[in-house]
Specification:
CATH topology of the largest domain: Rossmann fold
CATH superfamily of the largest domain: NAD(P)-binding Rossmann-like Domain
Largest sheet: 6 strands, parallel
Shape: elongated
CATH class of the largest domain: Alpha Beta
Distance between the termini: 16 Å
Helix content: 25-40%
Strand content: 15-25%
CATH architecture of the largest domain: 3-Layer(aba) Sandwich
Strand order of the largest sheet: 6-11-10-7-8-9
Order of helices and strands: EHEEEHEEHEHEEHEHEH
Number of helices: 7
Structural class: alpha/beta
Number of domains: 2
Length: 231
């Protein structure tokens, strides 16, 4: 009997438990999980590894859309492994939206109106770029901490999901926000800030998702099993 293919599940995004369930529903597979750095780990019923095994037949990527580091490390650790992605489709602008899409955080900051009051949802790694803006930047943080921003124009705004349009509208009005800056991660849970921008007629600057390695985007257990069956 042939040895079942080994799948390395790159974990971190909220779709991770769903993808683990798909693997559990595929009997002819062996799987391990590798958690992206800084992610809260949960029990998925899989053996956890610190790196992708070199003999992995496939890498099932369920990391954050912008976690290029975890993705690149995994591909380097198992360069012959096939790649597939489980994740949300990016948002697309509607007629009433005023979006500008860019590729880098430096381009995003350059696209901000002069002296604009900015609501940003781009993570702490973006602080050096945000610190170059000539107006106040309110950077959302989902977990409360005591770390300084390190830049006088940058202020943390702490809040816990889930968010809704009404709450975001109220927050933007309280802060006097002129423009929203966000990463285009897709999905309904992160969209209220952009829905609020739409409701208030505010412009938004969005970072496009980084390119992915070649491979299919899987949307259900059937597609996952079919992908594994081709390995």
């Amino acid at each position: 009997m042939d040895k079942p293919p080994l799948i390395a599940l790159l974990a971190g995004a909220r779709e991770t438990p769903m993808a683990a369930k798909w693997l559990a529903q595929t009997p002819t597979v062996s799987a391990v999980v590798i958690w992206a750095r800084g992610m809260d780990r949960v029990d998925l019923g899989l053996v956890a590894r610190d790196a992708v095994p070199g003999d992995a037949a496939g890498i099932l990527d369920v990391t954050h859309a912008f976690d290029t580091g975890a993705r690149a490390a995994a591909m380097a650790q198992a360069p012959r492994a096939a790649y597939a992605r489980v994740g949300r489709d990016p948002w697309t602008a509607h007629r009433e939206d005023h979006w500008r899409e860019v590729d880098t955080i430096a381009e995003a900051v350059s696209a901000l109106p002069a002296r604009a009051r900015v609501f940003a949802a781009t993570g702490r790694a973006s602080l050096p770029a945000l610190g170059t803006h000539d107006g106040p930047v309110f950077l959302r943080q989902l977990t409360r901490h005591d770390q300084p921003t390190g830049f006088p124009n940058c202020i943390y705004i702490f809040g816990a999901a889930p968010f809704d349009i009404r709450g975001e509208v109220t927050l933007f009005k309280q802060l006097g926000i002129d423009v929203v800056l966000a990463r285009n991660v897709g999905g309904i849970d992160s969209f209220p800030k952009l829905a609020a921008a739409r409701a208030l007629g505010l412009p938004a600057v969005l970072l496009r998702p980084p390119p992915l390695p070649p491979g299919p985007r899987l949307r259900n257990a059937t597609e996952c099993a079919a992908w594994i069956g081709r390995l």
